[in-house]
Write a structure and sequence with these properties.
With 276 residues, this protein is mostly helical. The protein has one domain. It is built from eleven helices and no strands. It starts with a helix and ends with a helix.
Length: 276
């Protein structure tokens, strides 16, 4: 990148981050999601603070927490980002921005990372808040180290994947329709087990990070008996479920990031075609 491109990228990222982090909905949506989950009997607090229920190891407890927080709050994360790219067209500021010397690619990347980072802040606040409370309650400071590891190899790649599609797909369909389809996809692709219905759960294309969880974090569920990655007898899409190894764990992360890049590239190409 040239200095000019880097300057445009940095300015766009900072502006988009400041605008998004100030939106009340960015904070209200994850807060209400966690409260509702706890009210309907979610196991989050029991898995962390009930001595009779929580795992013996800090790693298992904190990594399990990452799955719950990521699985719950990523739904709101994707829905909140669904109008961020099309908003410029709706407000009729896109032609003005395109007429400036600022490169559209640098602006797109700045918007992507700026809005995504701002929308992820409440998710990380919730996650590290619970992880810190667990570390104090159990006297296990290593919990924070495991929380950082889970964030790096599970939460961040998953959110980058979701953010890219949340920005790009509403260019070809109304944002409300995308939100409905995204919620359906998230429930279909992440929550059911692959042995009960065709699903992307346990494949390389799994935003909840089954392969990194299984191999890099040695996590197999709170009770240690869950299969999070790899082939499942009789399941469909097993060609996307190679045996879990360090190589396939990093490949899963790379696949999510590559798909995110492809979604952004497609969104950029579509907008460029429309402005010709």
């Amino acid at each position: 990148m040239t200095d000019r491109t880097l300057g445009v990228f940095g300015a766009s990222l900072r502006y988009e981050f400041r605008m998004q982090i100030r939106k009340r909905s960015v904070w209200i949506v994850p807060a209400l999601t966690i409260v509702l989950f706890l009210l309907i009997g979610g196991s989050l607090l029991r898995d962390l603070f009930d001595p009779a229920e929580r795992p013996a190891e800090a790693r298992t407890a904190v990594v399990g927490l990452a799955i719950q927080v990521h699985g719950l709050l990523s739904i709101g994360f994707g829905c909140l980002l669904a109008d961020r790219l099309v908003r410029d067209d709706r407000l009729r500021v896109a032609p003005i921005l395109d007429a400036t010397p600022a490169g559209p690619v640098a602006r797109l990347l700045g918007k992507y990372l700026g809005t995504g980072a701002a929308t992820a802040v409440p998710i990380l606040v919730v996650y590290f808040g619970f992880a810190a409370a667990y570390a104090v309650d159990t006297g296990a400071p290593s919990a924070l180290g495991w929380a950082l590891a889970a964030t790096g190899v599970v939460i961040v790649p998953g959110l980058l994947f979701v953010a890219a599609f949340a920005l790009a797909v509403p260019l070809v369909m109304p944002a409300p329709l995308f939100r409905v389809l995204f919620v359906g996809y998230w429930l279909w692709g992440n929550l059911p087990g692959p042995d009960t219905m065709p699903t992307l759960a346990g494949t390389l294309i799994h935003p909840l990070g089954g392969y990194p969880l299984d191999v890099l974090l040695d996590f197999h569920g709170i009770d240690g008996e869950d299969t999070l990655a790899g082939p499942v007898p009789g399941a469909t899409l097993n060609f996307l479920r190679p045996d879990p190894t360090p190589a396939t764990a990093w490949l899963s992360i790379a696949v999510l990031l590559a798909l995110a890049a492809a979604a952004l590239a497609g969104g950029h190409a579509l907008r460029a075609r429309r402005t010709r």
